[in-house]
C-alpha cells in the first residue's frame, strides 16, 4: 500500500472512531453513564439470548424446522465488560477482510462469533496458583500440578492388564483436555476410532460432542473428556461390571485431580456407573445430582442423539442448565 493510501486509511479509521465516540456520547476517556451501561447490558443480553437460540437451532434442529435467527435491532454490541463500552471499536482492516470460517461448519462460525460472550463462563477458577512449568522435580505428589499428576497417572496406567479389555485394545484411551477444567464429560468407553487414535470421542459421536461443547462456548481443550473404561469393549458392547470396577478408580483419580465443578455424564451406562445407581437415563437426566460434592448432569450420549434427532433439544436443555451453573446463575 502506498503511503498516501495508508494515510487515507488512517484518516478513515480515525473518523470512524470519532463518529463512534460521538454516538456513544463519550469523548476520550469520559466514562459511560449508568444509563448507557444499562442499555448496553440490556442489548448484550438480548443479543446473547438470540445467538444462543441460533446456536441451538443450528445444532439441534432439522433443517426444515430451522428458523432464521432474528436479526438484532441494532448492531450487535460487543459483549465486553460494561466499562469497555467506553472503548472505541478496533479499527477494521479494510483492505483485507478477516478470513471467514468455512460455511460447512456452522457451529465453528457461530462459536467464533459468539465466543466472547462465553468468556465469563470460562473465567479462571479460584484455585491456588500452580507453580509455573518446568516444575522442580519433587518426589512429593502433593506438591505436583494437576498436569503432572495426570501425566503420572496416565504413565501408571499404560500397559494396564487389570481387566480382559486390554486384550483387544490398540491404544488405551486415558482422556484429554484441561487438567484444571471446570467442566468434564464422561462417556462409557472408547469405540473403534478412539481405540485407533488413543483419544476420547474422535469418531462420529465425538464430532457431535465437539459441536455440543462449542455451542456451550468452550473449545474441546477447555474441558476434560474421559470415559468410564479406558479400553475399547469388543464390538462396542457395554462395559461389564468387573471391567467398570477395575477401571473406575482411575477415573475417580482423574476427577480428584481435575476438581471439575460440573461433570456431564453421557448416556445411561456412564451415568449409572458414576452415580452408583441403576436407573433409566430418562429418569435421571435434566437435573443435577451430587457426587461427593461435584454436580453431575446426566444427558444423552451423542451416539444416541445421532440416531434420535428428536432428543437433541432435550440434551440442549441439559447443557443450558450446565452453562447457567458455570455462570453462577444457579
Ligand atoms: N463413546 C464413548 O462413550 N466414548 C468415546 O470415547 C467414544 C464413543
- Mean pLDDT, all residues: 82
Low-confidence stretches: 66-107
Number of helices: 11
Distance between the termini: 53 Å
Distinct compounds present: uracil
Strand content: 5-15%
Q: Pairing-aware structural class of the strands and helices? A: alpha/beta
- In total, the number of strands is 6
Order of helices and strands: HHHHEEHHEHEHHEEHH
* Physical arrangement of strands within the biggest beta sheet: 1-3-2-4-6-5
Q: List the quaternary state of the chains.
A: single chain
Structure in a nutshell:
This protein is an alpha/beta fold and 330 residues long. The chain has helices at 3-24, 34-60, 106-114, 146-157, 192-197, 204-215, 241-258, 268-275, 281-284, 302-307, 312-327, and strands at 176-177, 183-187, 224-227, 262-266, 289-291, 294-299.
Can you describe what's shown?
It contains 11 helices and 6 strands. It has helices at residues 3-24, 34-60, 106-114, 146-157, 192-197, 204-215, 241-258, 268-275, 281-284, 302-307, 312-327; strands at 176-177, 183-187, 224-227, 262-266, 289-291, 294-299. The chain has a 6-stranded mixed beta sheet with strand order 1-3-2-4-6-5, sandwiched between helices. 32% of the residues are buried. Uracil (URA) is lined by residues 187-191, 194, 200-201, 205-206, 227, 303.
Question: How is this fold's topology laid out?
Answer:
Layout: H1 3-24, H2 34-60, H3 106-114, H4 146-157, E1 176-177, E2 183-187, H5 192-197, H6 204-215, E3 224-227, H7 241-258, E4 262-266, H8 268-275, H9 281-284, E5 289-291, E6 294-299, H10 302-307, H11 312-327
Parallel strand pairs: 2-3, 2-4, 4-6
Antiparallel strand pairs: 1-3, 5-6
Helix pairs in contact: 2-3, 4-7
